[in-house]
Amino acid sequence: xxxxxxxxxxxxxxxxxxxxxxxxxxxxxxxxxxxxxxxxxxxxxxxxxxxxxxxxxxxxxxxxxxxxxxxxxxxxxxxxxxxxxxxxxxxxxxxxxxxxxxxxxxxxxxxxxxxxxxxxxxxxxxxxxxxxxxxxxxxxxxxxxxxxxxxxxxxxxxxxxxxxxxxxxxxxxxxxxxxxxxxxxxxxxxxxxxxxxxxxxxxxxxxxxxxxxxxxxxxxxxxxxxxxxxxxxxxxxxxxxxxxxxxxxxxxxxxxxxxxxxxxxxxxxxxxxxxxxxxxxxxxxxxxxxxxxxxxxxxxxxxxxxxxxxxxxxxx
Length: 316
Description:
By secondary structure, the chain is mostly helical. The chain contains 12 helices and no strands. The chain has helices at residues 3-19, 22-32, 37-45, 69-80, 90-101, 138-146, 149-159, 165-182, 190-205, 214-228, 260-273, 290-315. Helix 2 runs antiparallel to helix 3 (37-45).
């Protein structure tokens, strides 16, 4: 590791130990200090409710303690990081049970926002019902339908019992999602697109490439990812943009080569934008709940710091 990066990592390490939630600290230890996957699972389980779902601000912009699909999605992101995660882990089994039986699943999709969000501090984009302007176009309705459904369906295919009715239902959802994606060649919503990138990874991990047009799906996603990443790096410091790390964090990724310049620039961007305390800035904010936002913001800074160091370590 180059000397400059050693300094960046050491500053980040101190920030994490001083500011992070137990979950981000466990993730840091897992990736950089030979920490165990079990530590991550223990920290993550603190956010899991009796019904198997997740809440309590796991996704930092929503303090709803109740189980909601978007918080379940956030849990799957953390679980996918763990090499060799076994299907029999209690936290996985409970999560799958929640995904199958939650009333926020109508048999075709999991809800994007839920009514109980309004009872707790949250960012405006998690208000129920979601702002009507976001559903004015076909693209926006498509995004609402498959964020986080595409990703959650992939998680079910990867970890559920392939003989179960729920797994078969998830297979149908995933196949319809991919078919719908092929009809939406102008999609550039980075959040829903990342759900499809996760779905593609889960399809491969589950050995289901033969059930999908994987070559076509990969090529289609490569084109969309390249269009969605903000290739004009002059905008990175002043606008809310999409960086390569939204979709991949390794040079071995099928999305790396076409976005090599932006991917390498992100390494420099990470080095350049680290703040004096070792953390990173958050380039969004809540309109309401200023006291809760102050807490959430610090949680986000820790998560961004861990994610940035994972990216820099893999790419730098």
